Amino acid sequence: MHVCGVDLVTTVCRSGAIGAFPTANARSVEELDRWLIRIEHDLAELDRPAAPHCPNLIIPQKRFKDDLACLVRHKVEIVITSVGSPAAAIGPLHEIGCLVFAGIASLRHAEKAIEAGADGLILLTAGAGGHTGWANPFAFVRAVRTVFDGPIVLAGGITDGVSLAAARLLGCELAYMGTRFIATWESMASNSYRQMLVDSTLDDVMLTKAFSGLDANMLRPSILAAGLDPSKLDESVSEARAKQEFGGKNPEGPRRWTEVWSAGHSVSGVRSITGAAELVKELAREYESAFANWGR
């Protein structure tokens, strides 16, 4: 999630949920080091144990080795690996007792991650915000469960506490939620982005390759606001070309993620801008109520 930083992570962890963030959100390895120091300091001040923070390593990123070394120095407890095999990260992270959860989008990805020694799998399904998967979550979870008995995390379309309860019933230990946390005061999103999430529904989410060369769920209103016609986007663009056009190198074009915004199918559940701690409490209440009412 491109708008996740220290404030959101620490607030979520202090509230009892795992706070995850891409290491790439820090602009340099030195900044990542400072971020981790701040997070560790803020969580150490609690008079009770906080939930762990969870950096997300993007495998193809140029900084991968340096970011990995930084996480090893800080002896983090959990790491997510994304967009590639976790094999290069697992050895160093396991040496410090860190759990590695690999993001996957297909059964073949699952097999490779299991073979590499991943401790858990994050199933990227249809409906996730930003770069998304294609598989139906019901079928995907049940298929993976036949080959993996470790922790499964469901990502994509998790709207509320009822969705979390449904994920548990489906066979997942955890679920991954992003879109609703963008619309919190602690995220690094602009007020305009937050408000657009409140004003949008599922029908405003558009699946397109135009901005990254990969399937991504983007907000149609933000595409229009950037002066682009959603019906005339180049869906055959390469990753390199998309980066050139929308990655900040083209002074005349809007920047992906910062001007053209992403959202998942769960955007229909964003009804107000709220604090992250309040949102975690709301989700917990909904989750407990869903199980209490099950079978009635």
The poorly predicted ranges are none
Query: What's the shape?
Result: globular
| Spatial strand sequence of the major β-sheet | 1-2-3-4-5-7-8
Mean pLDDT: 94
Structural class by SSE content: alpha/beta
The helix content is 25-40%
Number of helices: 12
User: What is the C-alpha radius of gyration, as a whole number of Å?
Assistant: 19 Å
Please, could you describe this protein's structure?
- The protein has 296 residues and is of the alpha/beta class.
- It has twelve helices and ten strands.
- The chain has helices spanning 6-14, 29-44, 64-73, 87-95, 107-116, 137-145, 161-170, 179-182, 191-199, 220-225, 239-246, 276-292, and strands at residues 19-22, 53-58, 78-82, 99-104, 120-124, 130-131, 152-155, 174-176, 205-208, 216-219.
- The strands form two sheets. A seven-stranded parallel sheet has the order 1-2-3-4-5-7-8. Strands 6-10-9 form a three-stranded antiparallel sheet.
- Helix 5 links the parallel strand 4 and strand 5 (120-124).
- The longest helix has 17 residues, at 276-292.
- The chain is globular.
